[in-house]
Specification:
alpha+beta; 3 domains; 7 helices; single chain; UPF0194_transport; coiled coil; 339 residues; 15 strands; Elongation Factor Tu (Ef-tu), domain 3; OB fold (Dihydrolipoamide Acetyltransferase, E2P)
């Protein structure tokens, strides 16, 4: 008769071993079911501000914008008192007119009225010459007939010679009055007029520098001076932030920087930015550095990194605010994550 089989005694695992097996099982399940998150680099938005100033000193006369305002290209920004420059400009314009008038005077010769006086004197001298010629003929006839002495005839000949010399003198004066000035004088006066023209241009430039306008559309970041305050030459009155000057600055570990190149597409993510912002890498630093303190990440602290800059398109640049923390990913990696 067969004896019934005895059941084996139940064996219990050690609690520590059971916990270890359970942890390994959970880790394996999580590893198999959860996809590893793609890598990203931390950084922040950076703005390259344009500091608008005047090369001339003066009192601020007007400020046409406010901080936070967006201005268009060529929009007036501020003006500085330009009274002295305007007076200098008027003086330079008067000096230019004087120099040009003198140059024109040398090119045209004497005035018509002055020429008419000389021509009248020439006509008078020619009449005196004709009279002296007739008198000489009469004296010569009388001397030949013995009615007058030869000395009278000689005096008449001398008078005729003097009249002819006077006619020649006045004829030359008329001709000279119609000629322009000497070539050297004309050249010197034209040079003086050109110098006066350059002085006027300089005065006009100084006047324009007292009024500054926006070179391109931009956001007014700060206004440093108010109406009535005195500004030194070159001291910024306000600062602008054009969209083209907004960029992302992030830091890539040295083992990853070799995979990046200028012009490579990346995407930028930030809190409140909405959809990722496409950008292109514009600069890769040539020297490494340690992760800056602004990157608040224990995992990236004290690592050797390279600074990389990327610029978004103009239509997306205004979505970034300088100093804002950013996450930057390669464009291909971001598309994989989205799928």
């Amino acid at each position: 008769m067969r004896q019934p089989m005895k059941s084996l005694p139940a064996t219990s695992l050690h609690p520590a071993l059971a916990a270890l097996l359970l942890t390994g099982l959970c880790t394996g399940l999580l590893t198999g079911c959860t996809q590893q998150a793609p890598a990203y680099w931390s950084g922040y938005a950076e703005g390259e501000y344009v500091y608008v100033s005047s090369p001339l000193a003066g009192r601020v006369e007007a400020v046409a914008v406010l901080a936070g305002q967006t201005v268009a290209k060529d929009a007036p920004l501020f003006s500085i008192d330009a009274e002295s420059e305007q007076i200098a400009q008027q003086e330079a314009a008067a000096r230019l007119n004087s120099a040009q008038a003198q140059a024109s005077n040398l090119d045209t010769g004497k005035r018509r009225d002055e020429l008419a006086v000389t021509q009248a004197q020439l006509a008078q001298a020619r009449a005196a010459e004709a009279l002296a010629s007739h008198d000489l003929q009469r004296q010569q006839q009388l001397a030949a007939q013995g009615f007058v002495s030869k000395a009278r005839a000689e005096d008449a000949a001398t008078t005729l010679s003097q009249s002819r010399a006077r006619v020649a003198e006045l004829a030359a004066a008329v001709q000279a009055a119609q000629l322009p000035g000497r070539q050297d004088e004309r050249t010197a006066q034209r040079a003086a007029a050109q110098a006066a023209q350059e002085v006027l241009k300089q005065s006009q430039w100084r006047t324009r520098q007292k009024q500054q306008s926006a070179m391109q559309a931009a956001l007014v970041a700060e206004v440093y001076y108010r109406v009535g305050e005195y500004v030194q030459p070159g001291q910024p009155v306000l600062s602008l932030l054009p969209p083209a000057n907004i960029k992302a600055r992030f830091f890539v570990p040295e083992q990853d920087v070799g995979t990046l190149r200028a012009g490579q597409a990346v995407t930028i993510s930030c809190d409140g930015c909405g959809t990722p912002i496409p950008a292109q890498i514009s600069r890769i630093a040539t020297q490494p550095e340690f992760t800056p303190p602004v990157i608040y990440s224990n995992g990236q602290r004290s690592k050797l990194v390279f600074m990389v800059e990327a610029r978004p398109q103009l239509k997306d640049a205004t979505r970034l605010k300088p100093g804002q923390p950013l996450d930057v990913r390669l464009a291909a990696t971001a598309s994989v994550q989205g799928n």
